Amino acid sequence: MTMYKEYNTNQLSLELNLAYDIPMNHEVRLISLFVDSIPNHVLLEEKSHTGRPAFHPAML
Prior knowledge:
The chain is mainly α.
């Protein structure tokens, strides 16, 4: 029995175009502004005391 999952290193890779420019009037900019306006303490106020530590909302 192997200790690690078997994987294939010959997988396809997807190229990301980081120079992609989102237009100023696109709705995703409004969503981004809304999400950024939520105070961190609102998102972090209820924590579980069991299980793994939570990720910081900025990391999501």
